[in-house]
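Re: that chain you flagged

S.,

Sorry for the slow reply, it's been a week of failed gels. I finally had a moment to sit down with the sequence you sent. For the record, here it is as I used it:
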Amino acid sequence: MPLTPLKAAFILALHALSTLSSPVPKPDPLSIPPLIPTIPGITDPLASLAPPLPILKVPTPPIASPPFTASSLKPKKLGYFWTGPFNQAYADFLAVYSLDDDTFGTFITLVDVPTSGNEPHHLNVSKDRKTLVGTGLLSLLKTQDVEYFFDVSDPYSPKFRNSGRALLSSIGDEIVAKPEPEGGFFITHMGSAGGTDLGRLTEWDRAGNLIGEWPAVTDLASTKNILADQFTPHGLNANFEKNIILTSDFVVPLSTLKPTTGIIKANTLRLWDINKRSIISTITIPNGGGIQDVKFIPGNPDTAAIATAVHLGQVWIIYPFKYNPDGSQGVAELLYDLGPKAKDVTAIYTDLSADGRFLYLSLTTANHVAALDISDLNNVKRLDNPDEAQPIIGPHSLRVTPDQKHLVALGYFVQEGDIGVLNTVGDYKVHYIDILPNGALHFNRTIPFLTEFANRGGARPHFSVIADFTDPADPKWNSY
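Prediction finished late last night. Pasting the structure tokens below so you have them in one place:
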């Protein structure tokens, strides 16, 4: 999908009438107003270059949710799950469950948002542990807000607070919490305001207000960078002490919707200067075929990060402070090939142990979670059997629990339905997997969202955040 500067101008203008940040509940109009005002001398030439818009849905409000009874239980370990119902007439919601051994799987409460059909995607918690934010992958199709903020100052009774959207970009993905005292979040938007190439790294304050979309249109060097190679950021990780961010480019969202000639996949990552909010360089993994995820390895002396190349079924190592022969900053090297069953598995997401020793990878359409010991990057050891049939279908989101004893894997990636070509099979379960002393995995308990939310047609949990209140004086949450 070639992108000329004039087409880029169209994409940047596409949501010129959308609000930067809008609280909900608010009325959703049944008709969609013009997204671009008439501008003499500007809109006429743009009209001939306008790409087709994604398939839009009538932005109807959700129907009344089925009643539920919240629990008075106060477990020491809580799981928060950002979830969409199978019956998309109902609202999307945040579900909360006990993860304590003696009350595992006990429903605690549920919080609806005032919209539906967002395809709930990633979820993270602020560094002050008072706010959760979840993104909507397909909110654009109903012209709805993309970011949904929850007040978790009372962790047993979260409340929906507000929502927001960006101006230039959409398709919400990965979330990184910014350090205190400033707080807030960085969030990748994989697509433009119209779902095409030219996404953004968005920034939000602690109240859920949009601060900026990076690179800024006035940042000419960074804008030139994203016009040169596909810029569809999905993966995101930050090292605030070293003043760098890595984003990884996955797919052009619009290319996953019908009609399509095929999903357009990227081979690149971007290295950022946090203070300047600008791109330092592009890092390429040849023939990567979608670089879905990137994460810094905790404690690595070279500030190295891992990145997943979905087409290749490989894990690459990124050295952000090394230089290539051409003088460009950021070196990519192959770390580990996950074997033939990992190639083209649609998605490869990751999480790492807090000490940086163990790496876990979800191989979505292979129905498998891989485990690697990466304590010695020159001698990576595989801890799982790639030929084993694991009791999980369609895993995607992975979160190591704060106590480092379990891996929470969710059996669902994405289902676009009849309008798209991304429809992965899942078991729609929360898998609470034991981490053995050597880092290997033992599948144990599950929470089945199909039956838990049968009154909503079943439900599809996409992402989780885990809280541990074992020590009331030092509560722990897993936050990137």
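What I noticed first: The helical segments are 5-13, 43-47, 220-228, 449-452.

Talk soon,
D.
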